Hints:
Layout: H1 26-33, E1 37-41, H2 48-61, E2 65-70, H3 79-93, H4 108-123, E3 127-132, H5 139-155, E4 165-170, H6 174-180, E5 198-200, H7 208-222, H8 228-238, H9 242-254, H10 290-302, H11 306-313, H12 319-329, H13 341-349, E6 352-354, E7 361-363, H14 366-379
Parallel strand pairs: 1-4, 1-5, 2-3, 3-4
Antiparallel strand pairs: 6-7
Helix pairs in contact: 4-5, 8-10, 9-10, 12-14
Amino acid sequence: xxxxxxxxxxxxxxxxxxxxxxxxxxxxxxxxxxxxxxxxxxxxxxxxxxxxxxxxxxxxxxxxxxxxxxxxxxxxxxxxxxxxxxxxxxxxxxxxxxxxxxxxxxxxxxxxxxxxxxxxxxxxxxxxxxxxxxxxxxxxxxxxxxxxxxxxxxxxxxxxxxxxxxxxxxxxxxxxxxxxxxxxxxxxxxxxxxxxxxxxxxxxxxxxxxxxxxxxxxxxxxxxxxxxxxxxxxxxxxxxxxxxxxxxxxxxxxxxxxxxxxxxxxxxxxxxxxxxxxxxxxxxxxxxxxxxxxxxxxxxxxxxxxxxxxxxxxxxxxxxxxxxxxxxxxxxxxxxxxxxxxxxxxxxxxxxxxxxxxxxxxxxxxxxxxxxxxxxxxxx
Length: 380
């Protein structure tokens, strides 16, 4: 089966065009080995779940006990239901009689945290919880769960064991969960103590050399070459953002008239190119041009893309962040300042990046810039 450019979900090795992401795992692995907890916040279809799967795979090889579960699929949307979902994930990975069953007693949060500590002791290895779509359940339930986990992490000791490390992954920053429940008119941001025990988990985009490698894989398999100027434009427009790269390549491959050659050995030797359908003739397989890439970018911006819609969702009710983006879009040069909460928020989300000199901030890529310019205009 030929590989595909995946634009609908986590990438699967052997099925999708992918690059080696092992280098991206080194920093989070170092943090988790030290027992630190992580927070990964990005728009949808940014590669979060793909990264978590690879992270879980390596951690298991290093003899960590890992529970990778998506709270989006927890059937019982109660606090007990969330805990039961995590319990079920652990039991599936480490079946009875290895693990005890959790007996819910009041207060249930304390009893569940104690049970996680017992699980870690029974398994005899550090327990790592990777909670994907942690922000999908109702907000009050998420807040209750995080408060109990934070307390257990902070108080963990030999006589009160708990999980070794927790990674939260979603499209909502923890500080926004907290702010949503503040009374109307309360503009204070507080200390952020709900989950200030975590470090931001970086999610690097593709480098230019990785993008070239990806396109070379495609060309070898498909018989469709890529011209250097088209590759450079694809890089300039996306700056390696994985979903944007995949979507544009998908459009070019399947919708904008760049047909693949037949797989080797699928045609009889006696069948000439002239007898093939016109779109399947080798002569019809021309390299994507700069105009082709521009057309794909334009088409992408006209679609209701979940990824781009999710990018703007990250800015809802954040007037300061919107104003900062408007200044950048207006051509203002703004110095990089990590003490600025809005800059830190947008940098952690991957919407902004430091400039090449490291002194200023800029939008991650021109497609984001064009989309946000339209969206912010609509807001005003």
